[in-house]
Amino acid sequence: MIAVRCLIGASVFLAGGVALANPIDDCNQSADLERQIGGCTAFLRQDPFSPHVALAYGNRGVAYLSKREVKRAIEDFDQALEIDPRQPKVYVNRGLAYRAKDDLDRAIADFSEAIEIDAQSGDAFVNRCVAYTDQGQTDLAIADCAKAIVLNPKDAVAYNDRGVAYEKKGSLDSALADYSKAIELDGGFGEAYANRAVVYDHQGAKERAIADYRAALDKSPTSEDREELEAALKRLEAGP
C-alpha cells in the first residue's frame, strides 16, 4: 500500500468585506467538500479579479480530487497555474490527479516542475517516488524518497513509500527496515503495518505477519483494505 499526500494550495484568504465572508470561510475549509466547492465557486463569481483567485481554483481542485472528480480537478489546477505558474503545491496536486488517471508521465512532469520551483518540497519528491514505483523505475523511486527523508527525517510516509519501492525491487530486508521506521515514527500508520505484514507473510514469518495484519485492521482501513486484511488472516488461519 502506497501513501500519498494531497496539498492545500496556501493559507487563508484575506477577506475584503462582509459579503464575501461565508464563501471565503467555506472555500478555506475542507471538512465538507460540497461546501468547499460551493464556497470557492461563489468566491470566484463574486470577486473574479481578486488576487486570491488562483488559490480558490487550487482549493476547489483539491476538493474535486478528494471526490475523485479528476477531470474537474485538473481543469481547476490548470486555471490556477495559468494565473500563477509558480505554485509548486498546485503542480503536486495536479500530478496526483494525473496519477489517478494513470497518466504517469504527466504526473512525473508535474512533480518535477514542483521540484524545479522548490527544491525543498519533500511532498513533490515523495509523490514522484510513488509515480516512479508505479512505472517500475525503482532506483529512481528510492532516490526520490531518500531525498524526501533528508529533507524531513521524521517523514513516515517517505519511509513507507521507499519501502514499497525496495519491496518491488526485491530488497526485502531494506523494505522491512523502512516499514519498521515508518511505524516507529507513526504508530497509527496502518499502511506501513499492512506492508510489513505482507513481507513477513512472504518470508514465512507467520506470527509476525498475523500481528501486523491485526495491527493494520485496528487502524481504520478502507473497506477494500479491510477485506484484504481479513482474507490474509483467514488464509493464515487466524481471526481478526
Radius of gyration: 20 Å
Secondary structure: helix percent:
over 70%
What oligomerization state is this entry in?
A: single chain
Number of helices: 13
Mean pLDDT over all positions = 92
Reading the helices and strands in chain order gives: HHHHHHHHHHHHH
- Looking at this structure, what is the CATH superfamily of the domain at 1-10 and 19-118? Tetratricopeptide repeat domain
Task: Kindly summarize this structure in a few lines.
Helix content is 72%, strand content 0%.
Task: Give an overview in words.
The chain is mainly alpha-helical. The protein has a domain at 1-10 and 19-118: Alpha Horseshoe (Serine Threonine Protein Phosphatase 5, Tetratricopeptide repeat), CATH 1.25.40. The protein has 13 helices and no strands. It is globular and about 60 Å long. Mean pLDDT is 92; it is low at 8-20.
Highlighted features:
mainly alpha; 240 residues; 13 helices; Serine Threonine Protein Phosphatase 5, Tetratricopeptide repeat; globular; 72% helix; single chain
Task: Please give the structural blueprint.
Layout: H1 21-28, H2 33-46, H3 53-66, H4 70-83, H5 88-100, H6 104-117, H7 122-135, H8 138-151, H9 156-169, H10 172-185, H11 190-203, H12 206-217, H13 223-235
Helix pairs in contact: 1-2, 2-3, 3-4, 3-5, 4-5, 5-6, 5-7, 6-7, 7-8, 7-9, 8-9, 9-10, 9-11, 10-11, 11-12, 12-13
